[in-house]
């Protein structure tokens, strides 16, 4: 089909999406592209009032006979694949400039960015990308087929996998010829030269991605950004010429490089959901020394977003963590004073709006720890008078005896508050 027919097919796909959202896509004036490839241009944009990223595709630049199938399939896959480590789809629009794929706001991963962050942050990023790939292989039964730096983006410090244009089953990759658009260094041995009977029979979703991932890691090592022993990661196995001998994603995630790294270990645990009491108890015994080994940037980018959540706060056994976090100047601070003011204090105050018994219990147990910080902070009297005390009095009229006892204990601090001239005497 020709280019006109291709654009018509793409417009139909976009129109269906546009019906679900009336927000307008706009580009700030004089905005420079963040990334330019042979397939798309990436820019910051606004979708309504929301800051987003827009990937703009010009269908006439695609060099495939069946190019009318290219974008609709890519959009469909990105819309249906939901994972924290996969670029999050928002909407799609068409304009005279081309077809716009709208996603969460991200920046492309670049060599300059890699040089500015620590090796531990790189390892967390590599871990997240392999988690995303393993999800595609094991749950979606598809291959990404385009694993490289240009397909990785950064969202609030977290690496997410994009570049989904080539994603599909092994059979789809062979039929569409999408691999013809890949640069030579991304083509694994089994797809170089004439296909043999052996390579044609291989239908392992992980084979191509693991090889490409291995080449990316190899480049990071060559550039001096990663340093680890030969046994820490099965790199040689990942780069095997025989696709059947390459390890699967779960085997790579269980390698020493990730399992024995303190940063990856902590981040990995903090992201786990639904752990039982025994698992939480085991971790609560060892988490403080692990947290104290982390750099402030790791704490702020990867750990705090997990700790400062209603779900994690309600888990049993972590009073020691929050006792340290909620103290303005502990002996061994985990975070900076600025982070305490801008992130931790607002979280503490918000917790008082939840009436969950386990959350309220932990708040009472830690009340003496953060009382002065909240009351003496900016707007402390308003917080006390408009949030904490009203919530406390509401709980006093509840029928739960143990909660009433805790509330009376809280009110026993009233003389202290009066001395601070924040309450009428």
From TrEMBL:
One of its GO terms (molecular function) is protein kinase activity. InterPro entries: CIK-Related_Protein, Kinase-like_dom_sf, Prot_kinase_dom. Residues 1-348 form the Protein kinase domain. SMART domains: S_TKc. SUPFAM superfamilies: Protein kinase-like (PK-like). This is Protein kinase domain-containing protein. It comes from Linnemannia elongata AG-77.
